[in-house]
Specification:
Blueprint (H helix, E strand, L loop, with lengths): L4 H21 L3 H13 L1 H7 L1 H14 L11 H16 L6 H21 L7 H22 L3 H9 L5 H25 L5 H25 L4 H27 L1
Helix pairs in contact: 1-2, 1-10, 2-3, 4-9, 4-10, 5-7, 5-9, 6-11, 7-8, 8-11
């Protein structure tokens, strides 16, 4: 069903805000855009249609921080479990219970934020990293495949690695670039990616590229302390949004 002008403006604004946040922090585009688009077009349509903007957005992030590629190492204990569970998540996309997924996300993120309250300098490394990273990655990969939104889990996971600001943003671009490519290939393989979605994704690149450009410019003006505070603030906002959405569905 075609969108009227007001609905189209809301969708464009959702894409723009999400892209700006992604430019600043490395994450946030699907977290903002998918819920907004799904209001008008449904969850499956929203998740599939944002794949092209997501992939281009991550390429832009990598290009903007490419000089830091030599200073990061690929954490395969995050990537491999995530890729496998993304494919499983895509298979469940049509039947996934969103309220259950939201509750799960809210609980995981809430526990992480509470833990940071008790241990604000916690860093995921050594044996702890080898045990927890694959567990979080499986959960995050499944929710990424099933809902297109995994920022609450991977944002928290990458934050706990205590990367430098530029490395954090770049790492988001690299892993989400891999995840979105795998997800898109799964959609194509399962016959869920239509020509209309390709056209819509290409059109969505206009607000995404413009907004993310300014977000990346803004990111360079931030100190590491301010950047970390923004990441934590974003995680708290995400948690509040998840909880509010759950309460609304139950009342």
């Amino acid at each position: 069903m075609p969108l009227d002008l007001f609905e189209l403006l809301i969708v464009v604004m959702g894409l723009g805000v999400g892209a700006f946040v992604k430019g600043v922090t490395g994450t946030g585009l699907p977290l903002v855009a998918v819920p907004v688009i799904s209001i008008f077009l449904g969850l499956e349509h929203a998740v599939v249609a944002v794949q092209i903007p997501n992939i281009v957005s991550n390429i832009l992030l990598i290009g903007g921080h490419k000089k830091h590629l030599v200073s990061i190492s690929m954490r395969w204990n995050i990537v491999v479990p995530s890729v496998v569970s993304i494919i499983i998540g895509v298979l469940f996309l049509k039947t996934a219970d969103k309220i259950t997924t939201d509750i799960f996300l809210a609980v995981i993120l809430g526990l992480f934020l509470m833990f940071l309250g008790f241990k604000p300098n916690f860093q995921l490394k050594g044996v702890t990293s080898r045990i927890l990273s694959p567990v979080f990655s499986v959960v995050g990969g499944f929710t990424h495949g099933a809902t297109g939104v995994s920022g609450p889990i991977f944002g928290a996971l990458l934050y706990s690695l205590r990367l430098k600001k530029e490395e954090f943003v770049l790492y988001n671009g690299v892993i989400y670039g891999i995840f979105n490519t795998v997800q898109l290939l799964a959609f194509i393989g399962l016959g869920m990616f239509y020509l209309d979605y390709l056209i819509q994704g290409i059109l969505a690149l206009v607000p995404v590229i413009i907004a993310q450009y300014f977000g990346m410019k803004a990111s360079k003006l931030l100190s590491l302390l301010t950047f970390n505070r923004i990441i934590l603030g974003l995680l708290f906002i995400i948690e509040a949004k998840l909880v509010w959405g759950i309460v609304e569905k139950w009342t």
